[in-house]
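REQUEST FORM: STRUCTURE PREDICTION
Request ID: SP-0412
Submitted by: Lab K.M.
Chain count: 1
Length (residues): 312
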Amino acid sequence: MTISNSFSIKNIISFFLFSALSVLMMQNAHAQQTFHKAVPEKSITSATGWYYYYNISADKIKNIISSKNARIIDIEVVSTSPYRFNVAMVVNSGVHKKAWWWFYGVSESRLNQEARRRNARIIDIERYTVGSKERFAAVLVPNKGQAWWWYYGMTSDGLKSRIKQHNAAIIDIETYTVNGKRRYAAVFAKNTGGSWYYYLNVTSSFIAQKMKDKRVRIFDIERFGSNKFAVVLVRENDLDANRPISVGGGAVRDFDSDTKTRTWLYMNCTASQLKTLLGNLRRYKFRISDIESRKVGSQLLFDVLLLRNGGK
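STATUS: Completed
RESULT:
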């Protein structure tokens, strides 16, 4: 066998640089695949019909599901007596079409039973209390062979431990307090590799800087007190580290490298501001992937995470 010595040191260095870049790109593709496969509703940017409602009853939700062929992708329990909810929904057709189920007022054992019976997995979880009892609202979809887990009552160390135990990625996170102590509920999916991050008790400015530094976008976010958040960020190959990230006016706006907005996080919107905002966003082709609300005095304020919905 003849070996040519024309393969220079420069060639070797180039080969290893290319190999390292290829591995990095593959890992990031795996990260995207992990989250896209687990919750495509929070990743797919092709155009679809969508809806949001706040402070509505379970019967109203059922009517909307039936009349509009809608599917819940995010749910929040606003009150339990009577039950009222915030929901974000997509039209259950095209790329978003699938079987699904939703529950509220159920115990941990009942929720696990329903998931097993349907061979389903949770994509959105909400923990709350009714009297002294812990109850859950959840959205489930068919599980097609994906490893997944959910836990609640975790400390920050417990959350970290579960990630390590299962080699998992967080696809939904909730935070709450029990006797003044911070606790977490989360849904996990098996992490097939790549870069994703989560941060607890951080500001919107901190999130924006991480988005820029690590070339990530917001996947899931939960308010952590008055001006702090718990957030899950996922790396995507086409996000430019030099892309602009704007923070201000109660919003974090994430641009693609072509300066077109990909995601928006709007914070502290009143109901009337939210209505005006969403009128504009339908025109500019965005949809809600996550909606949260809280009472500040007598005023209801919203945080909404928006994802491109076709077009640019």
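NOTES: The chain has one domain: 12-308.
Reviewed by: T.R.
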